[in-house]
């Protein structure tokens, strides 16, 4: 299961969302660094009508997928209305 991060952790890892890598229909992607020093991308999801439990179920499903052609989900954030994937 992926690691749950608080929104304050996400802000620290992205250095207050300093390095924006791109933006799509579902949100913006930022460069971030984990405590281990590993560089990752964090996708901050836009406003969603889905409730928190739906997001957690989605994270659990995506977190079980391991394939060479699919980016691995390392973590997530669900903090009030803030949602993110690491």
From TrEMBL:
<keyword id="KW-0812">Transmembrane</keyword>
<dbReference type="InterPro" id="IPR017441">
    <property type="entry name" value="Protein_kinase_ATP_BS"/>
</dbReference>
<keyword id="KW-0418">Kinase</keyword>
<keyword id="KW-1133">Transmembrane helix</keyword>
<dbReference type="InterPro" id="IPR045874">
    <property type="entry name" value="LRK10/LRL21-25-like"/>
</dbReference>
<dbReference type="InterPro" id="IPR000719">
    <property type="entry name" value="Prot_kinase_dom"/>
</dbReference>
<dbReference type="GO" id="GO:0008889">
    <property type="term" value="F:glycerophosphodiester phosphodiesterase activity"/>
</dbReference>
<protein>
    <submittedName>
        <fullName>Putative glycerophosphodiester phosphodiesterase, protein kinase RLK-Pelle-LRK10L-2 family</fullName>
        <ecNumber>3.1.4.46</ecNumber>
    </submittedName>
</protein>
<dbReference type="GO" id="GO:0005524">
    <property type="term" value="F:ATP binding"/>
</dbReference>
<dbReference type="Pfam" id="PF07714">
    <property type="entry name" value="PK_Tyr_Ser-Thr"/>
</dbReference>
<dbReference type="GO" id="GO:0016020">
    <property type="term" value="C:membrane"/>
</dbReference>
<feature type="binding site">
    <location>
        <position position="43"/>
    </location>
    <ligand>
        <name>ATP</name>
    </ligand>
</feature>
<dbReference type="InterPro" id="IPR011009">
    <property type="entry name" value="Kinase-like_dom_sf"/>
</dbReference>
<keyword id="KW-0325">Glycoprotein</keyword>
<keyword id="KW-0808">Transferase</keyword>
<keyword id="KW-0067">ATP-binding</keyword>
<keyword id="KW-0378">Hydrolase</keyword>
<dbReference type="InterPro" id="IPR001245">
    <property type="entry name" value="Ser-Thr/Tyr_kinase_cat_dom"/>
</dbReference>
<keyword id="KW-0472">Membrane</keyword>
<keyword id="KW-0723">Serine/threonine-protein kinase</keyword>
<feature type="domain" description="Protein kinase">
    <location>
        <begin position="15"/>
        <end position="86"/>
    </location>
</feature>
<dbReference type="GO" id="GO:0004674">
    <property type="term" value="F:protein serine/threonine kinase activity"/>
</dbReference>
<keyword id="KW-0732">Signal</keyword>
<keyword id="KW-0547">Nucleotide-binding</keyword>
